[in-house]
Predict the structure of Aminopeptidase N.
Amino acid sequence: MATSPQAKYRKDYQAPTHTISDIELFFDLHDNQTLVTAVSHVHQQSESTTLVLDGEGLTLQSVKVNGVDWVDYTQSESSLTLHQLPELFTLTIITQIDPQANTALEGLYKSGGAFCTQCEAEGFRRITYYLDRPDVLAKYTTTITADKTLYPFLLSNGNKLAEGELENGRHWVKWQDPHPKPAYLFALVAGDFDVLRDHFVTGSGRKVDLEIFVDKGNLDRANHAMVSLKNSMRWDEQRFGLEYDLDIYMIVAVDFFNMGAMENKGLNIFNSKFVLANEKTATDMDYLGIESVIGHEYFHNWTGNRVTCRDWFQLSLKEGLTVFRDQEFSSDLGSRAVNRIHNVRIIRGPQFAEDASPMSHPIRPDKVIEMNNFYTLTVYEKGSEVIRMLHTLLGEQDFQKGMKRYISRHDGTAATCEDFVLAMEEASGIDLQQFRLWYSQSGTPLLKISSDYQASSESYTLTVEQTTEPTADQPDKQPLHIPFDIELYQQDGTIVPLQCNGEAVHHVLSVTQPKQIFVFDNVPERPIPSLLREFSAPVKLEYDYTDQELSFLMVHATNEFARWDAGQMLLAKYIRIHVESVQQGKSIELPDAVIDAFRGILLNETLEPAFVAEMLTLPNHNEVSGWYKQVDVDAIAQVLHQFKVILATALVDELSVIYHLLKQEEYSIDHKAIGQRALRNTCLSYLAYTEQGEGLVYRQYRQANNMTDTMAAMSAANAAQLPCRETLMDDFSAQWQHDGLVMDKWFALQGTNPAEDVLLVIKRTMQHPAFSMKNPNRIRSLIGSFLTMNPVRFHAKTGEGYQFAGEILRELNTSNPQVASRLIDPLLKFRLYDQHRQTLMKKELDALKNLDNLANDLFEKLTKALDQ
Ligand code: TRP
Ligand code: ZN
């Protein structure tokens, strides 16, 4: 490597020396030689007459200042520096780029037959030299010229101003976006599509055209995205009072995309996975995923676009807040409890694991080498939990007051996380000084609770101790302000009103000290506490519950989340016990009382089926691994497998009855039907481990009239290694091999196949006509699923899993570093495993680190993991 990449620090923020008020862009699109002309109006904002522009992989053709060739400039690998500039000037830069050769999918690239862009975070600098930073906001006018037959649709941000024909079969379209924006929100698309058109009338009566562009032939898969978009627009008006601000909203679905979707102003670009769905091709999970991502990108229009980020360290300002908004959207439209459960599983699983990894960082990072490495579970999901805690502390009304204040104060500008917290503080009058630590402190706090009941004084004491272990990035931790939601129950299920010193207290306690004692009076008997209700803070909880107390809460807790959580704690207790049993060569058993608690849930007809399905779902291998400093991969897998077998065997009659009872004749996609399918398919996932398994799974596959049921049958066959697995897999591939997006489901089952020879199969599958190492979705489905969801085989003692990961990463380091950098995470966690495995994993990391063309993305992660 030539030079070591340089880190940037949050503390070093400096306002830009210049700003750009307007930019006019001209694109002359050609596969290999696209010419980009950028005409910017530049204003000096400081003492400096020198302007440093960002640029990467550009061929510079010419530079003019006020129309005159400018020679006083210097160029480096990543910048263009202009000297001796006037105070106010028009800068004209012509660059040439090669979209066809762009496999990194950043900047301007080709996805299938279409041109498209991805500029967040720092992709615009691959299009032209520019002040590629989010605090430079300009008005964009964009003219696109391209071949008319190949690219009948030429799209960019804002409104269409004009269009025209040229000789030699080319045409042009000119767009203008009236809202100033940073470069990362710029977008361009050129291609041939089918278009689904609709419109939305805003609260104030403006008509907005809605257009969804999909590959030809896919129109019958765009309806759910359109419905979700209209629901998003309505919801943001009703819940947040926020209306859309352009006359047109476009969404383009592309097959080659590094992430989920991108909120470019007025022109969202989506991974086709989050647009395309019909009952034959998409599962219920896909439908819900589309609803949430369409919502997420739409909600960015206010939280991200109208108010953007001052610098990339502030990413959680828009992402944490927008995730919070999309979670609320899904919860208002569907089941709040089920949504909360899914979100909490992500925090307790992969987000806690990230906190414990070499990549640990606060939701507002302090040091970054490659920004793409910080689109993380911490910034997004924990960021959303931090917003949720504010919401819990303030309540909906004051939270909305704070939102109004934040938006009106910062509309049209680039803001910071501090600006947001300040608006919330001012709106509510609540002191958030200590709360601000959530933005700067990384790691997972642990709450240790103990309780004491004094019958004589009818008083109940909760002692709360908080600690946060040091993380890779921060040795010292301080106590945080933790909203701690509790309820106390009497044996008969009634709730004890919370009183301290004779006065009523709120059920959300403010924990602020390292150790804090809460004394509640007028408690008539020793109560059963429901702790950290709604997962009121992203922390680990330790409290010595008895089995009886947990079984009680599973039935009597007033809120569904608390019941689910009690069930999870009961399972967790026995999973831990039996991981040890396995290590000591003892057998695995579950007490009858535990089995009966789950039987009770299964037979309780008053519960929503979707909720019952969640109650019956065991924590996965990754989540359980997160409980340990030294992970015993095989023991955990054995325990989880045995629990499934034990529960399936003990509850076979109940599971079977419910499975048959929930069969639906007609397919529909409403929440009730989704919930019933979820429970029925959860039953199937257990029944697969019983004698009936093979017959039921095979029959369900044959009879399925929707992808949810098809996939449930295949997943059950895969997990339980049923004899019919091969037949079903062959049948599916014969039916869908022409469709990469559908085949992703099949690839993921190949990747997570627990069979011993899975690696051979994966290597063979890489030759499948639907597979391509150029397409991130295919890579993630087949290879990503092997690395993260097939722990036993990935961590095979032979080291073949690690070696395979190494090979793939070396290839992707060159072709698509952003995808490489996401895939490497499991290898970075080598310290969690035994010496033998550690050595093998490190060997692969060392080999990668020695690559002479190592990308910044991998460099940053490798140095963090290896230099500790
Ligand atoms: N802002 C996008 C979102 O939250 C994230 C995103 C999409 C992204 N594509 C990207 C981030 C590419 C970095 C690189 O929806
Ligand atoms: Zn986002």
Notes: The chain has a mean pLDDT of 98. Residues 310-439 form a domain with the Neutral Protease; domain 2 fold (CATH 1.10.390.10). The longest strand covers residues 170-181.
